[in-house]
UniProtKB/TrEMBL annotation:
Source organism: Mediterraneibacter gnavus
Domain named Alpha-L-rhamnosidase concanavalin-like: residues: 305-403
Classification via Pfam families: Bac_rhamnosid (PF05592), Bac_rhamnosid6H (PF17389), Bac_rhamnosid_C (PF17390), Bac_rhamnosid_N (PF08531), Ig_Rha78A_N (PF25788)
Residues annotated as domain Bacterial alpha-L-rhamnosidase N-terminal: 139-269
Top-rank taxon, per record: Bacteria
Name of the protein described by the UniProt record: alpha-L-rhamnosidase
Catalysis performed (reactions): Hydrolysis of terminal non-reducing alpha-L-rhamnose residues in alpha-L-rhamnosides
Domain Alpha-L-rhamnosidase C-terminal: 758-833
Signal peptide bounds: none
């Protein structure tokens, strides 16, 4: 047995984090048995556990997905912990020792600071660093620094950057809270120079769609408190004050959008003073943000010499971060770099970044060195290089991929390389847009924490990576903005002066993100932390409803709704056709339901009953408003059907008509999607889960516009904002709002995990302790292999269509249990293939409960998993197979079919108006029979 993935609040050995509700989690691997029969957690202030501060008792229930340490923590203390697990066979293991260390407080800011906020005594535009020489004259036991710089900062001791983090202290609602960091310092004897290098960042620089400036403050500022504990038992505290000096920075200009100007010739030896600046202490809080670090270094795949004579590096991947290069440039020479996502006519292009300049200028002092940026980042694949002397060699460049630290949890591959690339593209979308805040895009003059985009993608994100710490921090920002808006949720978080709030499906990030996080990781802390936020948002909607006559519908407000859907009235417009008030009412119901369930989980019984009742009222009002008595949904769009199916607003009497409505909508659109931000994330899921799995696969496999693989075939390495961001001729479709790295439509990957591979968390026992595996293969893909290192442990679901056989392999983690559903199977056959399982026949499927272990099955399904044909096959499909083509040539010899009719089914083709050819019922049945016989 091994105990792995040990974390505290989903962080590995966190130093200086806010550890309110310190909760440990771990994963047991390679155990002899199936269940944890006992676990013991020990906490100590000593690494060797010679004194134990806490030991869990025999009656304490320790669940590996989250056990809150029932101890009162002290500030500025390091705690060591370990866990011992024993299974039913007596197999046992003790984990490696883990630790966490508290900041100046455990959480919040109930402490005094000796350090004072200072600002360089220079013009406010001048970029600078503040520093002090600290004399260490006796042996040191340990030293810590509690530091923050605004807008952005890096801490240096004796010229060396401390830690490996980028863009500290990250981006949060600085008006409400400021996260400081804790550093373990190594001082040498004698003089030590401590320096805080400052940059404008989100706080002070240009940031926001209206190119706002100084959103949170107009001066650079630093606060640093250094504690040194000496061997003689004394402690010394050195805080920032006006004794500290300032110097000019070589980073003479920097901005999130504009990039950076690095002038290596700037005289940094000239000393300036510092001044006090009163930013108060109330907002200070130990950090929550996971570290933003460099995760990968990519070498350009090509140096392109473009038709207009430019030199352009191709990174081979649309990525987010920095460009590092090795400079041997002579003194005074100026290197200039511009960043873009796509070439146009083979030339460098960046107009879709709008006002974001995304540049880097380096003025050389003649010293050979590696150069990189500090206080900006770029979303790019191509870099135009100007001013480089001699041959541009790819070896001299690296793209540094930066994003927030989150453990990667999964892999999903199939027999189809395009689908595999799509999964990768979605993951790259996540990397690039999880830089402290979940953003819409990482390149243009936006890079905002758009709540809608964040909500839509959160389900997929939870499969890809451990997002608990990341969303915990975002949740805090979201709530702190809500507090200022009487419960409403802004369109972007942090707000940074962006106006706009309370849009349906955007603001519901307040309920949906914590709920997804809970489902995936089973840790109730996120629900506890966000409860007031969730409630605040639902109360806001209810107030809006009450003011509008308490209809238990939400029929007011302005909503983005099915943003960027293709069925809108204005060609190329941004608003979809689905009635925004219908979507708003559905989300009102959906969020109220989540809140009621959350209240029940947290033991808030009164709230659970109250919001449960409100949800029931919304349900009834919705049914009355949007369905005819015979079950016809009054809004006839793909998204409308998907929304009522997903949110549970499809009453039994309407179910069949809703499903048929959805099918017909797609059929009328020649089986092409036309959905936007609301419909798309749920579209394939609702098709698969409501008897239309084949259409879900059909949409996935669509290689033309609009579809996911169209982008892949057009060379996308991330997911685009629009279905037609790039036209078939390679031309960008517009510059107004057109990002090539927008993760929203990457949410198809959630369908792949949940439906294609079938791995689903359950509400009853979250964190995949009890979960479901319901794989749904389709002939269009030969095999699928998914691995998810879930909170409970490693889950696997793999299938293969092998001739007439269906083969499956599943792994259920230690101390977990899965309900497995095998499609088109017989209980008798399945029971014979695995020991100790009790199979139940459920219609066409076989269902059984599986404990920890690996299971393999191979059987001939009751319905063939190969392509079949009928009169309902499309003309295109029937032409593609020589055997069906031969049937048609003989039985229904049409000469030329208009191109746009090729996606019609044969049945539709036989309707006179299309083709002029009618067909008798007998003939129809005969052709159908012949087609069905084709193997
Ligand atoms: C963003 C979107 C966002 C939308 C809302 C856009 O500019 O990039 O992804 O959700 O605005 O209107």
């Amino acid at each position: 047995m091994n105990i792995k993935h040990l974390k505290l609040n989903h962080l590995t050995n966190p130093l200086g984090y806010d550890v309110q509700n310190p909760t440990i989690s771990y994963v047991v691997e390679d155990a002899a048995g199936k269940h944890q029969v006992s676990a013991k957690v020990q906490v100590s202030l000593k690494e060797d556990f010679s004194e134990v501060l806490y030991e869990s008792g025999a009656d304490e229930e320790i669940i590996n997905t989250g056990f809150e340490l029932p101890i009162a923590l002290e500030p500025m203390s390091r705690y060591y912990w370990k866990v011992q697990v024993t299974d039913e066979t007596g197999d046992s293991a003790v984990s490696d020792v883990q630790w966490f260390e508290t900041a100046k407080t455990v959480s919040g800011n109930d402490c005094t600071w000796e350090a004072k906020w200072i600002t360089p005594a220079l013009d406010k535009q001048v970029q600078a660093a503040v520093w002090k020489d600290i004399e260490v004259s006796k042996p040191v036991v340990k030293a810590r620094a509690y530091v923050v710089g605004l807008g952005l900062y890096e801490l240096y001791v004796n010229g060396e950057k401390q830690g490996n983090e980028c863009l500290l202290p990250g981006f949060c609602d600085y008006d409400s809270w400021i996260q400081y960091q804790t550093y373990e310092l190594q001082f040498k004897a004698g003089k030590n120079r401590v320096e805080v290098l400052l940059g404008d960042g989100w706080y002070k620089g240009v940031y926001g769609m209206r190119t706002l400036v100084e959103n949170y403050g107009d001066r650079l500022a630093a606060l640093a408190e250094i504690h040194v504990w000496y061997e003689d038992g004394t402690e010394e505290i050195i805080g920032t004050d006006t004794e500290w000096n300032a110097r000019k920075s070589q980073i003479v200009e920097n901005g999130i959008y504009s990039g950076e100007v690095y002038d290596a010739t700037v005289d940094t030896s000239e000393t300036f003073g510092t001044e006090l600046i009163d930013l108060g202490y109330e907002r200070l809080n130990p950090r929550l943000s996971p570290a933003i670090i460099v995760h990968e270094k990519i070498q350009p795949i090509e140096v392109i010499h473009t038709p207009t004579g430019e030199t352009v590096l191709d990174m081979g991947q649309n990525m987010v971060g920095w460009l590092q290069f090795h400079s041997k440039a002579p003194k005074g020479s100026k290197l200039f770099f511009q960043f873009g996502e796509i070439l146009q006519d083979g030339n460098f292009y960046n107009e879709n970044l709008r006002t974001a300049k995304a540049e880097f200028t380096y003025i050389s002092d003649g010293v050979e060195r590696d150069v990189c940026q500090h206080f900006t980042f770029y979303g790019y694949r191509f870099v135009k290089v100007t001013g480089w002397e001699g041959e541009v060699n790819p070896e001299d460049f690296r793209g540094l991929v930066i994003h927030s630290e989150m453990e990667e949890l999964s892999e999903l591959t199939t027999s189809n390389p395009l689908v595999n690339r799509l999964v990768l593209n979605a993951k790259w979308g996540m990397k690039g847009n999880f830089v402290d805040v979940p953003t819409d895009c990482p390149q243009r003059d936006e890079r905002y924490g758009w709540t809608g985009d964040a909500q839509i993608f959160s389900g997929t994100a939870c499969y890809f990576m451990d997002t608990v710490a990341f969303y915990t921090k975002y949740g805090r920002d979201l709530y702190s903005e809500q507090v200022k808006m009487n419960g409403s949720v802004p369109d972007v978080v942090p707000v940074a002066n962006y106006p706009g709030d309370a849009s349906t499906a955007w603001a519901d990030a307040a309920t949906i993100i914590p709920w997804n996080v809970y489902l995936h990781y089973g840790d109730k802390n996120i629900l506890r932390r966000q409860y007031d936020s969730m409630k605040g948002w639902v109360d806001y909607m209810k107030r809006a409803d009450d003011e509008d006559g308490a209809k238990r519908l939400w029929q007011t407000g302005t909503h983005y709704a099915d943003w960027l859907a293709l069925d809108g009235n204005v060609p190329g417009g941004v608003y979809g056709a689905t009635d925004p008030n219908m979507i708003a009412s559905a989300y009102y119901y959906y969020s109220t339901n989540i809140l009621a369930k959350t209240a029940a989980i947290l033991g808030k019984t009164e709230d659970a009953a109250f919001y449960g009742k409100v949800a029931a009222e919304i349900y009834n009002a919705f049914i009355n408003e949007y369905y005819t008595p015979t079950g016809k949904l009054s809004v006839d769009t793909t998204t409308a059907y998907v929304v009522v199916l997903y949110t549970g607003l499809t009453p039994d009497f309407a179910y069949e008509r809703v499903c048929r409505g959805l099918m017909n909508r797609l059929k009328k659109n020649f089986y092409h999607l036309d959905t936007g931000f609301v419909g798309t994330p749920w579209l394939c899921r609702m098709l698969s889960e409501n008897g239309m799995n084949d259409i879900a696969y059909h949409l996935l496999m669509e290689e033309g516009y609009p579809g996911w693989l169209y982008e892949v075939l057009m060379g996308a390495t991330t997911v685009w904002e629009r279905w037609n961001s790039v036209e078939p001729d390679g031309k960008i479709s517009g510059t107004e709002m057109n990002s090539l790295n927008h993760y929203s439509y990457g949410s198809i990957v959630e369908w792949m995990f949940r439906n294609m591979a079938g791995i689903n968390p359950t509400e009853e026992t979250a964190g995949f302790k009890k979960f479901r595996i319901v794989p749904m293969p389709d002939y269009r893909i030969e095999n699928c292999d998914a691995k998810l290192r879930a909170a409970s442990g490693l889950i696997e679901s793999a299938w293969k269509i092998d001739g007439k056989q269906l083969k499956f392999k599943f792994t259920v983690p230690f101390d977990a249990e899965a309900e497995i559903v095998l499609p088109n199977a017989s209980a008798e056959v399945i029971a014979g293939q695995a020991e100790n399982i009790e199979c139940r026949q459920d219609g066409e499927n076989v269902v059984f409960l599986a404990e920890a272990g690996t299971y393999e099955f191979c059987y001939e399904p009751t319905t063939p998993y190969r392509k079949t044909y009928s009169i309902n096959s499309t003309w295109e499909e029937l032409q593609a197979n020589p055997k069906t083509k031969a049937v048609l040539e003989k039985e229904y010899p049409l000469k030329k079919i208009p191109f746009e009719k090729e996606l019609c089914t044969l049945e539709e083709m036989t309707w006179g108006p299309f083709t002029g050819y009618g067909m008798t019922r007998e003939k129809r049945e005969r052709i159908d029979k012949l087609l069905k016989e084709v193997e």
